[in-house]
Amino acid sequence: MAIETELKLQLHSSDLDRLRTHPLLLAGTAGGTRLLLNTYYDSPDLQLAGARVALRLRRQGDSVIQTLKTRGQSINGLHQRGEWEWEVPRAELETDRLQASCWPAELPPADQLRLQPVFSTDFERELWHVDYHQARIEVALDIGHIRCDCPEGGTRQDSILELELELESGEASALWALAEELGRSLKLQPFDASKAQRGYQLFQQCQQVE
């Protein structure tokens, strides 16, 4: 298990060029751009959402990664939570990997939950790795959309334009320091809602339409 510590920030589209040419990012190591296609799963009665658990399959190039994120805390955009990842051979959930060592005790066993797709988040991620305040930080610019196909037809969709600062090593305070420095020339705002939470909001909107 890894503990994921990241700071989510809202970014204005007018600041994209200023972000990409910011001296701190230019001084860092560019990680390129990749397309990430994600499908989130839950039971028909959304027991995972109730336990604040996120379960997804991510397609990235020829790889498929199954990820489980468990209940954590989110304060002013800073997210900390447990995270497990497994590379799987195809875009199908492998529930046998969701054992007691990682699966929340308050949930029934995963193979009893009739897990099914709930929504998707598809976006391009542009990466930089920055050394700042004795910390190594991954800076990720995500641009794309969240989509939910409603059971009775039609879709709900929301845009993604956000900056994620993820701690790779060092102290979490470095995330705030980097955000403050970037915020001197960019319009940035801490953002507590994860992509998964926004996807569930779209799903609830679909239910209301019914």
Automatic annotation (TrEMBL):
Gene Ontology molecular functions: inorganic triphosphate phosphatase activity; metal ion binding
Q: What Gene3D superfamilies does the entry give? A: Hypothetical Protein Pfu-838710-001 (2.40.320.10)
Transmembrane segments annotated in the record for this chain: none
Task: Identify the InterPro entries for this entry.
Answer: CYTH-like_dom_sf, CYTH_domain, YgiF
**PROSITE patterns, alphabetized:** CYTH
- Please state every residue range assigned to the domain named CYTH: 2-206
Q: Span of the secretion signal?
A: none
Give the Pfam families listed for this entry. CYTH (PF01928)
- This chain's protein is named CYTH domain-containing protein
